[in-house]
Design brief:
Keywords: Nucleotidyltransferase, RNA-directed DNA polymerase, Transferase. The chain is built from 16 helices and 14 strands. The chain has 507 residues and is α+β, with helices and mostly antiparallel strands. The chain starts with 6 loop residues before the first strand and ends in a 12-residue tail after the last strand.
């Protein structure tokens, strides 16, 4: 049945890359044909939990046996796994595909963009904001979160179920129309069902577009199936089956979360050691006018611009609200946001609990086995992000005067590739002129994560940043806490003691 998803497992007698043979010798044409077969069938490979090679003969070994599925298969069996079993007298190891459900814990609330297509959504937001006018913004967001969850369960409903209900209604009335003319009420009923079906299909597309992170597709195109496929592939790619630590594999959800907290607590733990002091260095310093511009009162226009510059499609932090929500409900909530930002300017303090973040683990390798093979990206809350964005935009104005011309990254108007191109030209010039030269490349391990907060403040002081500005940065950096997302479920929360969070606008 061409409409059914495929699972294909067995001996393909071919490899894709040299690393899949012990000898590293492969057939280029065979590898191309194999890759074309995978692409044409739209297959996803399921990697084994442990082990790599599946065929052994003497000193020879190869990865010949594999498991491929089409994305639709993973929709029905999202926890599909593969084991390489012990060999019998055969040269090939048997493969065992199995699916086992594991409870990774509760998933955090997320505001769904498709809710905004329903007229009741904005009504709920306005009512919660009006009824709780004396509450703080974090409290209002918590109340709104509960109201939206209840509304989603009772009235908005499950998108696929609503689509199915509309389709069945249309099909039922079409069957009646086969035998007789529909009456006026039936015609209206079918028209309403078709209109509702279209509405729910657009909501489904919006939901899967957000989950797929395919941001280059223009909104309005009918790509629900495409988005669904991308979301399935993305979820499978990022799914953590087990983690390897101290020579053993850990696969239980609770143990993996504990290991994640221990690992990242160590990464972000303060090191108590004597650091060298770089006295006598001539840092570029801010002028008086630049200092004044940094600590001037925040204007409403500045806050509006900071909000407008935030990507509405980015995943939310622990509060669950993204900038699609912020921008869509701006007229309702902006006065409270203005007050939060103005209070921060006056006191230097952030609202309680708004500086926590989720650490999302992005694989750095195709098959990560340890936490060191993931890139930790922090997803901060919307209130903190607005304040951090305002500070970052102010900082951009003076960075050109502080950072030397040879620092090519992280400065507006400069490109990180400039340094690569210059280095390439220098090496090429030395080779052509036959000059001797030494190239030294320094790679700082965990450069973002290991920055000392005391050293950061010392550098800011050397560059003549005002005391008020430094207190704002301390508040943003030193009050941070985090939880690690493991397959969509957060670990316990821990405090950060050093480092700058990748994903924080200030970083």
């Amino acid at each position: 049945d061409r409409g059914s998803p495929c699972l294909i497992m067995g001996d393909y007698n071919e490899t894709l890359i040299p690393a899949e043979r012990g000898s590293h010798l492969i057939s280029s044409q065979g590898a191309r044909d194999f890759q074309n077969f995978i692409n044409n069938m739209g297959l996803i490979e399921i990697s084994p939990i442990k082990g790599f090679f599946t065929w052994f003969r003497g000193q020879s070994k190869s990865k010949l046996d594999r498991l491929f599925v089409q994305p639709e298969w993973l929709t029905s069996f999202p926890s599909l796994k593969l084991n390489i079993l012990k060999r019998s007298p055969s040269d090939h190891c048997p493969l065992l595909a199995f699916s086992s459900h594991q409870n990774w814990g509760p998933k955090p609330f997320r505001f769904l963009n498709c809710w905004l297509t329903h007229p009741q959504c904005m009504k709920i937001i306005s009512e919660i904001w009006t009824k709780n006018h004396n509450s703080s913004v974090p409290d209002k967001l918590r109340t709104l979160k509960e109201a939206l969850k209840q509304w989603n369960q009772k009235e908005f409903g499950i998108i696929d179920d609503n689509i199915k209900h509309c389709e069945e209604k249309i099909h039922f009335l079409d069957n009646i129309a086969n035998s007789r003319l529909l009456c006026t009420n039936e015609l209206q009923e079918r028209d309403d069902a078709q209109l509702n079906l279209w509405t729910w299909l657009k909501r489904s597309e919006s939901y899967w577009a957000l989950n797929s992170r395919a941001r280059w597709i223009k909104e309005g195109d009918s790509n629900t199936r495409y988005f669904h496929t991308l979301a399935t592939i993305r979820r499978h790619k990022n799914h953590l089956q087990y983690i390897k630590t101290e020579g053993k594999n850990i696969s239980k959800p609770g143990e993996i979360k504990e290991e994640a907290v221990a690992y990242f607590q160590h990464i972000f733990a303060e090191e108590f050691s004597t650091r060298p002091v770089f006295n006598g260095l001539n840092f570029n310093k801010l002028s008086e006018s630049e200092c004044s511009s940094l600590i001037a009162p925040f204007t409403h226009e500045e806050i509006d611009e900071a909000v407008d510059s935030c990507d509405a499609q980015k995943a939310p932090g622990p509060d669950g609200f993204n900038f699609k929500f912020i921008k869509s409900s701006w007229e309702v909530i902006k006065k409270d946001i203005y007050k939060i930002v103005e209070d921060f300017w006056a006191s230097g303090s952030l609202p309680h609990g708004c500086n926590s973040a989720f650490i999302a683990l992005i694989p750095k390798t195709q098959h990560p086995r340890g936490f060191n093979e993931f890139r930790p990206i922090s997803m901060v809350g919307c209130l903190y992000k607005i304040i951090a964005k305002i500070l970052a935009r102010r900082l951009q104005r003076v960075m050109d005067h502080l950072i030397g011309p040879y620092q090519s990254s992280f400065i507006k108007g400069r490109q990180i590739l400039d340094g690569v191109l210059i280095a390439s030209e220098l090496i090429d010039s030395c080779r052509r002129m036959k000059n001797e030269a030494v190239v030294l490349k320094l790679d700082f391990h965990k450069a973002f994560d290991s920055i000392s907060w005391n050293y950061l403040e010392w550098v800011l002081c050397q560059m003549n940043f005002p005391l008020v500005w430094r207190s704002w940065i301390r508040s943003c950096v030193m009050s941070a806490s985090a939880a690690v997302l493991i397959n969509g479920s957060p670990s316990s929360v821990f405090k950060l003691q050093r480092g700058l969070r990748q994903g924080d606008p200030l970083s």
